[in-house]
Write a structure and sequence with these properties.
404 residues; ten-stranded mixed sheet; three-stranded antiparallel sheet; binds adenosine-5'-triphosphate; binds ribulose-5-phosphate; transferase
Length: 404
């Protein structure tokens, strides 16, 4: 237990002062307890009370996906839910893969490649192969962060293909590990408070890769095809199986609204949510646990061809009970999303229309007119809620008191 200052009246959001050699620092998650009784004197709402404060350990979120499958876009939506912009560490390596905001630090697990680009080529392994990654170090460092300790994390430089000198990472409130293998190693998996897998079907992955790598990186169609084919066996062996461990999966498929569609522009997106996860109540449409098909196009929602279809219901996924919310099609007018939002429950919003507001705020992000953006935003809100509930439980206060 570290003291802010004895007998200070403070609010839940007040920062502690730095306590030398304590491992505690300013602006970390702070829990308040009185010395006499934890529960009876904790702050809720506008009441304040005399406190001492202890810094809590970060919560750890895992986000898994193949390269080019929307992890960065998802992270931008997540950090926005917490209210701040994420930036690379100030004054550090310009090729750092890390993004830091007031609340979150996102590290890219590519930084745990044990073989650089040349090393992989010499050994004939891809970056997806566990042999090219240092899982012992990954485990030790994620564990250290979770215990509230700073780490010296290596950097994999995507510009040069080399392993650069390490960067200092301080424990944040929310630590996100994104990349190819957040749920691969059982020890790392056990450290995760919540995990997400972005499951992009081959057809869609191909369409996105072409769009980005041809338009933005000058790659040829043939080289993109070859790169996808070369990665596929290792993707199937080491990356894809992680989805069975995820608490939420966002699955992106070609639309079923256009027969034999091969353009990949209209998407069918599923949000697969595991049942029975502490602090995570799956979102539902109309009636929890029922099976629902809903075509909202009409007076309240403008839909051009091929329209929009929602489905919701219980299912099983790798033998586990899940709820699945599905959206096929795309929005014509994003402001009308409020109509859809008003029919969804358990969204963990703080006010009516927060999903729509978030979507409008980032209307220029890829996927903002379809289920990818909608479900990424919803998962971001669920993570905020999970965070607040974990913090509240640790503090022994009602969840309301730990709102960010
Ligand atoms: N929801 C989406 N809808 C359409 N295109 C998308 C979507 N998400 C991502 N993309 C496309 O995929 C590209 C890669 O997205 P993003 O940078 O978020 O992925 P990433 O997983 O972080 O990639 P990498 O690991 O290679 O850095 C984007 O430039 C965009 O072209
Ligand atoms: O799958 C990847 C994850 O982003 C990359 O291909 C891997 O990190 C290797 O990077 P590079 O191609 O820059 O050498």
């Amino acid at each position: 237990m570290a003291f802010c200052s004895p007998h200070t009246t403070a609010s839940l959001r007040s920062p502690c002062t730095t306590i030398p050699n304590s491992g505690f620092r300013q602006n970390q998650v702070i829990l308040f307890t009185t010395r006499s009784s934890r529960r009876s004197n904790t702050r809720h709402g506008a009441r304040t009370f005399q406190v001492s404060c202890a810094v809590e350990q970060p919560i750890v979120i895992g986000l898994a996906a193949d390269s080019g499958c929307g992890k960065s876009t998802f992270m931008r939506r997540l950090t926005s839910v917490f209210g701040g912009a994420a930036e690379p560490p100030k004054g550090g390596n310009p090729d750092s893969n890390t993004l830091i905001s007031d609340t979150t630090t996102v590290i890219c697990l590519d930084d745990y490649h044990s073989l650089d680009r040349t090393g992989r080529k010499e050994k004939g392994v891809t970056a997806l192969d566990p042999k090219a990654n240092d899982f012992d170090l990954m485990y030790e460092q994620v564990k250290a962060i979770k215990e509230g300790k700073a780490i010296e994390k290596p950097i994999y430089n995507h510009v040069t293909g080399l392993l650069d000198p390490a960067e200092l990472i301080q424990p944040p409130k929310i630590f996100v590990i994104e990349g190819l293998h957040p749920m691969y190693d059982e020890r790392v998996r056990e450290l995760l408070d919540f995990s997400i897998y972005l499951d992009i079907s081959n057809e869609v992955k191909f369409a996105w890769k072409i769009q980005r790598d041809m338009a933005e990186r000058g790659h040829s169609l043939e080289s993109i095809k070859a790169s996808i084919e070369a990665r596929k066996p290792d993707f199937d062996a080491f990356i894809d199986p992680q989805k069975q461990y995820a608490d939420a999966v966002i699955e992106v498929l070609p639309t079923q609204l256009i027969p034999d569609d091969n353009e990949g522009k209209v998407l069918r997106v599923k949000l697969i949510m595991k049942e029975g996860i502490k602090f995570f109540n799956p979102v539902y449409l109309f009636d929890e646990g029922s099976t629902i098909n809903w075509i909202p196009c009409g007076r309240k929602l403008t839909c051009s061809y091929p329209g929009i279809k929602f489905s919701y219901g219980p299912d099983t996924y790798f033998g586990q009970e899940v709820s699945v919310l599905e959206m096929d099609g795309q929005f014509d007018r994003l402001d009308e999303l409020i109509y859809v939002e008003s029919h969804l429950s358990n969204l963990s919003t703080k006010f009516y229309g927060e999903v729509t507001q978030q979507m409008l705020k980032h209307a220029d992000f890829p996927g903002s007119n379809n289920g990818t953006g909608l479900f990424q935003t919803i998962v971001g809100l669920k993570i905020r809620d999970l965070y607040e509930q974990i913090i509240a439980e640790r503090a022994g206060v009602p969840a309301e008191a730990a709102k960010v």
